Structure formats: C-alpha cells, structure tokens
Amino acid sequence: MGLTFPVGFLCFLGKFEKDSTECLKHLEPLEKEEGQNLHKEDSEEETEWPDPLALGGLIPEKHFASFDLCFLQEFIFKLLKIKEFELRELRKTLERARVEQEALQRQLVEFQNQQQRLEVELVGLKTYGVVLEKEFENLNMVLMLSHFSLQVMDTA
C-alpha cells in the first residue's frame, strides 16, 4: 500500500527542492572562494577574527556559514510547515471519521429499534397464525358436523 500525498503538499515539496538546489548553487562559488583563501599568505590568517562563539558561530567574512545556517533554518522551517500540513490533514481526517462514526451509530440505533419492532410484529403474527389455525379447525369441524347431520337426515 503506497503513500499518497495531496497535490498542495507535493507542490510545497517541489518548491522546497527547488529552493534547496538554488541555495546549493550559491554555496558552490563560496566554497571555491574559501579554498582559494586557504592558499593566501599566513599574514591574513594571523589577523584577528571576532570570537565565532560570540557571533553564534557566524563569521561575517565567511558567507558559507551564514548560507549553511540559512539553509538549515529554511529546511527546518519547511519541515515544520510540512508537519503542520500533515497535522491539519490528520485533524480533518479524524473529524470526518468522527462524523461518519456518529452517523453509523445513529443508523445502528435505528436498525436495532426496527429489529425490535419487527420481532414484536413477528410474535403478533405467529399468535395470529395460531388463532387462524384454531378458527380453521373449528370451521372444518362445523363443516364435518353439518355434513354428517345432512347424511343422517337423508338416511332417516
């Protein structure tokens, strides 16, 4: 059984992949630039940089770190949006299931009431059938008696 996703979710996911690809394209030249910076003189390396921990790990001259953070923030944000979307869909599904369950419960109660009425009606019909059988037997008895009495009168 495969997973199916709503169209909006797939569009959202496609936009995320496109944005990720664009972000990676921006990172490639910066990584090459950083590689070239490694070959520069040692004097540049000795220049004092601000404490990276004080800047939250971001060094303004090193753009790749901010792009990584930007990418991670965007990635987390999009994952959060996806999870929120999934949660909304699950809530909608749960609400539809509740409504359906309530409708089925009402229908079950109706069927149970109808079953009870039909069982009572069946008992009444069985009783009526027994009464009709007795009436039929009585009519047969009267018919037989009248037939015998006619024969007795004919012979007399």
TrEMBL record:
Superkingdom to which the source organism belongs: Eukaryota
Residues forming coiled coils: 80-121
Keywords: Coiled coil
Keyword Coiled coil: yes
Protein's recorded name: High mobility group protein 20A-like
Source organism of the structure: Leptonychotes weddellii (Weddell seal)
Organism lineage: Eukaryota, Metazoa, Chordata, Craniata, Vertebrata
Gene from which this protein is expressed: LOC115938077
